[in-house]
Every structure is written in C-alpha cells, then in structure tokens.
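Quick one:
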Amino acid sequence: MLLEQRNLQKRTLNALNKKKLYTTDDILRFIPYKYHDYSRIMPLGDALDKDCAISGYVESIGKNERKIEASIIEETSGEKLNVFWFGHAYEWEHLKKTALNQVIIGGKITKHPQNSYTVINPVTFCLKDNFIPCIIPVYHKIKGVSEDMLKGLIKQELSSAAEPLENIVVDKSGLMGYKDALKELHFPSSLNKVEQAKKRLIFNDVLYFSMKMKNVPSAGRANSMFTISVSEQTKKFILKLPEITGISDFSLTKDQLAAVNAIASDMKKGLRANYLIQGDVSCGKTIIAVISMFLMAENGYQSVIMVPTTILAKQHYIELKNYADIFGYKTALLSSELKQRQKKDILKGIENHEYDFIVGTHSVISESVKYCNLGLVVTDEEHRFGVAQREKLIKKAASGAHTITMSATPIPRTIADVMFGEDKKVCTINQMPSRRLPVQTAINHSTKTIFEFIKRQLSLQHQAYIVCPLIHEEDTEDETAVSDSELSNVQATFSLYKEEFEPLGYQVGMVNGKMDKDEIFQIINDFRENKIQILVSTTVIEVGVNVPNANVIVVNNAERFGLAQLHQLRGRVGRGSIKSYCILNSNEKDNPRLKILLDSANGFDVAKEDSKLRGYGDLLGTKQSGNNRYISLILRMPHLYEKIKLYASWMNQTHMGGALLSLYEEGEINETI
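Output:
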C-alpha cells in the first residue's frame, strides 16, 4: 500500500519520500544498519573497545559550558570510568539525579594510555533499578521523522505484512517466516535471530533477482551481419598509441591483445562478438573497447558506449574524440544535460551516420535515438544499470550487433551466465600495463606529516586528491558512531588546504555531488590541465576521473568507507608512469579492513578478503540499490546463490513466484533494479 494512503502529515510523507520510502513495504524494508547489544551487563575487563552495557556507581557528576562529565566506579573491578556528554545540556536535569547511585552505562568503551576508561555520549545511562536488558536497533536518520514516529509506523505496518513465498518454499528452505524476520529486524529478541532474519530477506532479494534475470530475453543471435573485412586503419591506430597518448612505452599487455584478437576473430568470422571484459581498476579495459569501436568504424558501422555517470561519459568522450579526430572519425556525446537544439542536431547526425562513435549515459538507449548501422554496443559497469535499461540495449542489439561489457567487479562465470546469458564470453585482464607502478598505500593520521608529504610531491610538479566522507558537517547520519567534529567534510577540508597551500602558490579546488554537473566537470577539467593542484572532493571522483599527473590520494576517515570503494578511490592514482601513493587518513591503525589494502593491490584479492571479513549483515539497507547490490549479495554468498538458483528455476516453471515479484514491483526496488 502507498504511504500517501495512510493518515500521515504532508511533511512526514515528504520526508519519507526523500528517503525513497513510498510504500508500506518500503518502510518495513528500512532496515537498521546496526544494533546496540545491551542484553547483558559485561565486566569492564571484557568491555574494552566494545559497544556494551556495564554497571557502576556514580561517584560524581557535573557540567560546564562544553560538557557534562561523570566519574563512575565500575562494580566488578573498582576501576574508574569517565563518561562525557557533548551537546547534551538539555539532559542535565535528568542526569544529575543519578549522583551517588548505581547506574547502567551503554556505549563504546575506550581507553587511552594516560587516561582511564572512557565513554563519550553513551547510548543509554539510567538507574540500575530501571534498566531493562535490550538490543537497540539504529536507523539512518530521516530529517523530520523522529525515531519513535518511525518505529510506531513500522509497528503499525508489521501487522499487515504477508508471506510472499509459498509455504512449501519456506518449509523446504528452512528459513524464518517473512513476517517473523521483519519483526526480529525491527524489534530484536537476540542477535542470533537478527542474523537469521537478515538471511531470510537476502534469500528473498537474490531469489527475486534470479527469477527476474531468467526472464530477461536472450541477448541475441549467434551470428552477425556486422562482419569486418579490413583492419589497416585500426592497426595504425594501435601503432600510433605511444604518440597519441604521449607515453613512449605504451603497448598492449598479453591479456589485452588476447581480448582484442578474440573479439576481432569473431567479427571476421561473422559470429556475434558478445564479451564481458573484466579486470582491476586501471588495467586497461577501455582501450580494448576503443580498438573494437575503431574496427567497426573502419568497416562502416556505428558504435555506442553507455556509462553510468555523466562525469564518466564526458571522460570517455574526451578520450575517444582525441583518438577519433586523428583518423577522421566523428564522436558525439549524448546526455540529459544537452540543450534541446544541441540534442536535436546530434540525434539527426546519429540517424544520418554523421557520427561513428556515440558516448553517453542511459540517454543513448532512449526511443528518440535512431542509429544507422549500429554494429557495436559497449556498456561500462553494466551491473550498475537496471534490467529495463538492459532490455532496451538488447533490443538495439537484436539484429546481431556485437556487445562488449566492461566491469571492474570480479564476476565468476556462473554469475556472468545469469547476468548476461550463457553465450557471454568472459575475458579477464590480469596483467597491469608495464608502465604502471603499484600504488604505495599507508595509514597515517598526522595532518602535519600528510601536509609535508603532499608539499614534496607538488614540488615535483605532481597533483593530489583529498577525499572526505561528508559535504557539510551536519551531513552525518550516524551520530552514535562518531561525533560530527571528528568527521572530515569537504567544506572545512577545502578551507584547511587553501589556508595551508595557496600561500605557497598552489591552487586548491573543490567538488561534491550537490554541485552543478557542468561546474563539477569544469573543475575536474582544470585539475586535469594542472590549473588546480589539489582537488578536495567527496566520492564523486570515484569513477571516471583520469589524471595521470595526480600521484597522491588522501582518504580522510578511511574507516568509514567500504573496501571496494577505497580500492576504486586508490585507482584514481597510479594511472601514469610515476610512483603514486594512497594515504588512508585514519586513527584506526589496526583496522583489519584497512590492513587488507596495505597488503594487496589487486582488486580481486581485496574483494575475496573483504568477503571473508564481512558477512551479509551490512548488505541490507537503503543506500545499496540497483543490480550492484544483488551482485554484492551473490559474490558474498556463492553457495547460498547456487541453491537459490534452483528455487528460481523451479518457481519460474511452476509460476509460484507471483507474490514475491509483486512485493518488489510495488516498491522502490522496482525502480533501482
């Protein structure tokens, strides 16, 4: 049911809609991103660096303008525990009543070498007689909707939650019931039950994805009318790459040559080339697609490349146009940002075959685009596009056009079969170009040390990225994890770097996802042309920014990022032939996830190690959407996926999946898959 049919205030409804919560099912699937386990009281000796509940006696409590501070004597050890509240002056009247009483404190227990045990901004602090052991779910904040209001709405909707699977499927799988799973996630009885509940929802997600993908039509015929008979121009292009790129030792690796030859061989034989090119960040996947596009143009056919973001589209367009102009080929950029007149002229040129290469976002598959002799369709990171978009691509390829998909996500053969069809050939690029040196990665939390290091690199005419998790200080959603003042934000970091570096003659630029796209592109282009030496940014530069002269990237609050994202960010440097560095700015030197990046430069290895460290618990949530989320689930749980595929086949054959498909298609997931 749509939330607008519920008796909600207009401002509450708007606040929920901003979080893409439109239906009652969306509300029920707004899963807590973590839990505070205060179901039992722990002795202080076992509590260090844990988020837990401990018991103690309030020896003293007082306040000043900055904070409230309490001194606690822990009951089992007699050791002192200091508790601080920052920005909680409104609680003083309640807190001062706990003086000289036994209390329960729930929060993260830390200890510094010179100080006693400490808790900052505890989640719970109450008289021991009033304490009820519990597990507290923590939700991402919804501005304008209190947590009590959210929980009330969830409780109300739980009563109407229906089981989307047939009883026989639930019984055979041995999974928790759907309604019970939702209840455990929002009102947990134990963390073990929470894990079982997550597993049930993940089962639903992957089962839905598998059923949906099995219903996607085949990618097309085995033969193709787009055969190639000449390749002399393309060979000249490959030979001129050192001159065009300005890299004297530019040469294709053995893996790149093997992929190019395999694609060209199919095209010559009249077979439909249908390839997935996968490889690590900056391994050289794009040049394989470009060479294939040159083969098409030389033989009179058009090619199109579709990418997930406007920034990446412009990056590909600039690179491809640079190559194409030398050989007399014409390149067009299609995006939603084009003015109506510009778009009309480009569409007419595409239809008249004035353009050999077309680059764009999903605009390239809109109904208004009429291709002329389209011979090759290339998609970059196809799993970031939706099923509906993919089906449109397949229709464009219905006459036997060749297809190439590029992905930096390691996709096993079995998953590639489901995603792309069993006729998709997989080429894995394991070798990195010889001119690219491994990026040296280190963890460092000293601003002074980082500044001095950047200054040395800038003096050698190099450039640096600085990446922050927030745009503004108030953007954090996780108030319990870390105080706002401890989180790096773009605005404050930009000011800090300007103050430090601009007096030395270096220019500092700033980009973030809320800026106008043209402005972002202009600033990134200035950085590419070395008009800006330091670029402070959010993760908007994660994909599609290629500046070989930039050899330093600093990721502030690195512990806040996922491993795959950190590896992608690290891939922004090391793109030229100069020694490059990635500094993970974090005070968590022993963080096991960050240590993985120190030990491995290979994205496939990073993904494997990440899957060992992380379960499936963090894969449920509002911030993960689209096919990429489903692939992440599958990659983390290949054995579960193999079983789910069997259920998907059986349910498709028996038409038993209707309720499951309806559950997803009524809600937000239908828009992002």
